[in-house]
Design brief:
Strand content: 35-45%
Number of helices: 5
Radius of gyration: 19 Å
Distance between the termini: 6 Å
CATH architecture of the largest domain: Roll
Helix content: 10-25%
Shape: globular
CATH topology of the largest domain: Diaminopimelate Epimerase, Chain A, domain 1
Oligomer: single chain
CATH class of the largest domain: Alpha Beta
Bound molecules: the ligand N[C@@H](CCC[C@H](N)C(=O)O)C(=O)O
Length: 291
């Protein structure tokens, strides 16, 4: 069925920005070309990705989670590719549910491809997400910029990350292109690459090149990957010390606070903002070929 009217919202979390498309009954499909057009900053609304808001019961990938979480975050990168998880996206998604009157501030659960995420929504300002546990797949990885290379920590936060500690964030260069990594077989489905510099005790700064979106001003899963990599580098792994540990992660678009607990659970706290809302023009919509 061709879509003749559709509304959208625009939101961001530490300037990782999203086009939000409410579609409770999962009535539209989002081909990669349509997502890329929505995210185009000149010919579309513009964003690092799309948050397609669907009731879990109405989406084949989320049905099994419907008993636990009413809403499913169907996340897409700006090139139209599908990702397992988006940490900033899930905070903005929660803020949207409040904005639309679907939930009250407090505790809620959101279904994602990375499983059900528990969220605590302050009335305004911050949202905390329980991000689950990091995994550290085996294997040495190297990332490069020009003729310089760094060893990178392989971290999986539901989605893949390569975390490289550098002296200066300028070492990452322009980040127009995805930094090459080796071995080439390390990330068959691509990877998000983080460059990290120290700012003080338990305080780091990072830049990220996101799979499917390019350099963004923030990445929530990336900030978690960076924090757990820094925690292990600094020898304060909560599983060993028995103490929870909190790191502050500065990104170009703001600051995220990450806590890891002795059982490996990770909480991420940061802002989530709804900027505004609108209706797509019917002609633009028809040309954009939503299915
Ligand atoms: N910006 C997101 C991550 C989005 C997905 C990522 N680009 C991928 O393909 O894995 C975040 O805030 O976590």
């Amino acid at each position: 069925m061709t879509q003749t009217s559709l509304s959208f919202l625009k939101g961001h979390g530490t300037e990782n920005d999203f086009v939000i498309v409410p579609d409770p009954d999962n009535a539209i499909e989002l081909p990669a070309t349509a997502v890329a057009k929505l995210c185009d900053r000149r010919a579309g609304i513009g964003g690092d990705g799309v948050l397609h808001v669907v009731r879990s019961a109405a989406h084949p990938e989320a049905k099994a989670m419907a008993g636990e979480a009413e809403w499913f975050m169907d996340y897409r990168n700006s090139d139209g590719s599908i990702a397992e998880m988006c940490g900033n996206g899930v905070r903005v998604f929660a803020r949207y549910l409040q904005y639309a009157g679907h939930v009250e501030p407090g505790d809620l659960a959101i279904a994602t491809r990375g499983g059900v995420k528990r969220v605590h929504l302050d009335k305004r300002g911050d949202v905390t997400v329980s991000m689950g546990r990091a995994e550290f797949p085996e294997g040495e990885v190297t990332v490069s910029v020009g003729d310089r290379s760094w060893p990178a920590r392989n971290v999986n936060m539901g989605n893949p990350h390569a975390v490289a500690f550098v002296d200066s964030l300028d070492d990452a260069g322009t980040l127009y292109d995805a930094p090459p990594f080796s071995p080439a077989s390390a990330y068959p489905a691509g990877v998000n690459v983080e460059f990290v510099a120290d700012r003080g005790p338990r305080h780091v700064a990072m830049r990220v090149h996101e799979r499917g979106s390019g350099e963004t001003r923030s990445c929530g899963t990336g900030a978690c990957a960076v924090a757990v990599a820094a925690i292990r580098r600094d020898g304060v792994d909560p599983a060993e010390t028995g103490e929870q540990v909190t790191y502050t992660v500065d990104l170009p678009g703001g600051t995220l606070v990450i806590t890891e607990y002795p059982d490996g659970r990770i909480d991420m706290t940061g802002p989530a903002v709804i900027v505004g809302s609108g209706e797509f023009d019917a002609t633009w919509l028809a040309e954009t070929a939503f299915v």
